[in-house]
Amino acid sequence: MDKALQTMINNMPEKTGRKLDEWLKILHKKNIEKHSMAVSFLKTEFGLTHGFANTIVTLSKDKNESSEDLLVNQYIGKESLTPIYELLISTIVKLGSDVIITPKKGSVSLIRKKQFALIKPATKTRIDLGLKLKDVDVQGRLENSGPFGTMCTHRIQLQTIADIDAEVIKWLSMAYDKSV
């Protein structure tokens, strides 16, 4: 399991008043099928932050798959992209101790108080890094959001470790700073 996710699960009782297992039982009893509705339910009924609510719902839907399994499955046939993903994560966790890493079936959400980035293995040779940078014009390697729609405002395509350069780190840092 991802270290940041495990830390979040460990902190859940203190931050939310319940352990993960208790939250999973609540969601199981409620039996809400749509992800967004379940997140909204936890936020509205229990006052959870989006990060905790989203993580709980994701883990409830993927109870048969661990976060590690979700990541492994994302990179099947795309193993050459794994070093890029690992460097991105190690760069992102240096931005602050409040980064929440939430693996899903096809991507990994990066959340502070709000989602600020998304990592998606787009093809066998490219990772798309989605960023939420409202009021920032397309420039340099920063493109329109592409496949991310409204989830992210911009995208950067990464094909090698060398692509994670000062410009990418600048944009990541800006997205992190804006996500409070």
Give the key terms.
alpha+beta, 180 residues, DUF5655, 46% helix, globular, DUF4287, six-stranded antiparallel sheet, DUF5655 domain-containing protein
Walk me through the structure.
Helix 2 crosses helix 4 (50-61) and helix 3 (35-46) packs across helix 4. The protein has a six-stranded antiparallel β-sheet with strand order 1-2-3-4-6-5, with helices on both faces. The protein starts with a helix and ends with a helix. 46% of the residues lie in helices and 17% in strands. It contains seven helices and six strands, in the order ααααααββββββα. Strand 1 and strand 2 form a beta hairpin. The protein is globular and about 45 Å long. The protein has two domains: 3-64; 69-178. With 180 residues, it is α+β, with helices and mostly antiparallel strands. It comes from Colwellia psychrerythraea (strain 34H / ATCC BAA-681).
